Amino acid sequence: MATSMHLCGVRTSGLALNSKRIEFGSKGLNFSALVFTRNINHPRRNTRALRVTCEAGRVELLERKDSETFKLNRSEKKLTCVMKFGGSSVASAERMKQVANLILSFPDEKPVVVLSAMAKTTNKLLMAGEKAVRCGVTNVDTIEELSIIKELHIRTAHELGVGTAVIAEGLEQLLKGIAMMKELTLRTRDYLVSFGECMSTRLFAAYLNKIGHKARQYDAFEMGIITTDDFTNADILEATYPAVSKRLLGDWSKENAVPVVTGFLGKGWRSCAVTTLGRGGSDLTATTIGKALGLREIQVWKDVDGVLTCDPNIYCGAQPVPHLTFDEAAELAYFGAQVLHPLSMRPAREGNIPVRVKNSYNPTAPGTVITRSRDMSKAVLTSIVLKRNVTMLDITSTRMLGQYGFLAKVFSTFEKLGISVDVVATSEVSISLTLDPSKFCSKELIQQELDHVVEELEKIAIVNLLQQRSIISLIGNVQRSSFILEKGFRVLRTNGINVQMISQGASKVNISLIVNDDEAEHCVKALHSAFFETGAASESASTYIVASS
Ligand SMILES: Nc1ncnc2c1ncn2[C@@H]1O[C@H](COP(=O)(O)OP(=O)(O)O)[C@@H](O)[C@H]1O
Ligand SMILES: N[C@@H](CC(=O)OP(=O)(O)O)C(=O)O
């Protein structure tokens, strides 16, 4: 019955089994191997898996299990989730240590860690860039923001007990280059802000290694995140998914070192230059990696207890929302809830990977889980979102009723000018719509661009431009729109607020109301109080609705 087999030229004997498949753990004479075997005398019996190790020719049997059991154990070694920590979560050495402890407190998780720049660093880098344009090469080292950034990162390195070599020296050189050129192009802006994420990830990976937890730092632009060349607002390209998967899984299979990846950054496919994914883009990096690797879960760790019923900066009584669908979260993010990047839900939805929004300052809070679907039977309103400083256009056709092609002409004007429209309401001869100035190409050009839009549209219509408006988006179960509108309008009437436009999008999760900027915060508070506080939160408010409808 006894048979023998050869592993890498090392003869092993005494294993009464027939080798079916061998997987090697490392190279050379010293190796470990998984041997999947079947007993040749009892071929119908379960495949067995043996973990063997060989040192200097001596093979030792470590484990022998049914291959199913073994698979379970082996899967522990697979990357399981993405953990993304935003700037507020890695704001200091103390915070980085807490984040490291938090990661280590989930021994069953093998995460890919995605980090943003340390809090406020991105804004300070941009400010330093703006100052460099004006201050002259010799004065670059007097830029206050440069000193603050350097001081923060050097102090953090000292407090973490890691070397300061990870602090990018190139930053000062770059600022001198900007000072010399006297201009800050979008491409240079992206390169400039990339220093933030490059430094935070190097510090954190060095700290994990220092405390004995093997980690490996990755710059997203060297790791396969491939984007369009739209600097400051680049879009992820499909080629990213196989590239990221190949790189991360390939490295992981060689060495189980926690990948620590820069959020927010990519590499333009034509320019090969560093690009950024728009402010808050690290969320999108996290969901992209989650989809690329087909992971079980994507966690985004913030400084709030999940997605809240409204912006806590507007109203401190905002409460966490336990469950959202990808559609609700996408709509919420698109219409201005700063908590998630507007495009971050797309990869998660495509890969059907749950996203969990958690609080790194309060890890035991349940947070918000975002999935493809949820029980909507009791849901009414989920969250109220405010987007300020939007521009509204009332466009009335100069032609008579029954003319076709009016809408097409209006929208082709926006297409031609490359301006995106947010909310639309139409009648046969008029259109009201909103434009988001933050999406215009430059703040200085906003008025110029708006004048140009009006000029173009006036060729076919009478145009009324209304600025300083806000969009209040009511995110929730639009199947109950009559109830939401009835209750919402009652609140607004009581508060003397006039709604200037209303739109219920095809998404079925959003009703948008346009009001004046100076009334908007008050509206949000009043609506929040009516929907989430009088009687109960949204879910239980539906009990009242069901009973009263
Ligand atoms: N509906 C909302 N729910 C939760 N947070 C919100 C909401 N609207 C705005 N915020 C703001 O978003 C912040 C979290 O987003 P962000 O600053 O991007 O986090 P991080 O930098 O940690 O990724 C919160 O501190 C909060 O002030
Ligand atoms: N640091 C970038 C990217 C980012 O995602 O940051 P945060 O996760 O802190 O929002 C920014 O400030 O936009």
Automatic annotation (TrEMBL):
UniProt xrefs under PROSITE patterns: ACT, ASPARTOKINASE
Pfam families to which the protein is assigned, alphabetical: AA_kinase, ACT_9
Biological role: Involved in the first step of essential amino acids lysine, threonine, methionine and isoleucine synthesis via the aspartate-family pathway.
UniProt keyword terms in alphabetical order: Amino-acid biosynthesis, ATP-binding, Chloroplast, Kinase, Nucleotide-binding, Plastid, Repeat, Threonine biosynthesis, Transferase, Transit peptide
EC number annotated for this UniProt entry: 2.7.2.4
Subcellular compartments: Plastid, Chloroplast
Family under the similarity heading: Belongs to the aspartokinase family.
Domain of life: Eukaryota
Top-rank EC class of the record's enzyme: transferase
Pathways involved: Amino-acid biosynthesis; L-methionine biosynthesis via de novo pathway; L-homoserine from L-aspartate: step 1/3; Amino-acid biosynthesis; L-threonine biosynthesis; L-threonine from L-aspartate: step 1/5; Amino-acid biosynthesis; L-lysine biosynthesis via DAP pathway; (S)-tetrahydrodipicolinate from L-aspartate: step 1/4
SUPFAM superfamilies for this protein: ACT-like (SSF55021), Carbamate kinase-like (SSF53633)
Organism annotation: Eutrema salsugineum (Saltwater cress)
Protein name: Aspartokinase
Residue span(s) of domain ACT: 395-473
InterPro entries attached to this UniProt entry: AceGlu_kinase-like_sf, ACT-like_dom_sf, ACT_Aspartokinase, ACT_dom, Asp/Glu/Uridylate_kinase, Asp_kinase, AsparK_Bifunc_asparK/hSer_DH, Aspartate_kinase_CS
GO molecular function, one term: aspartate kinase activity
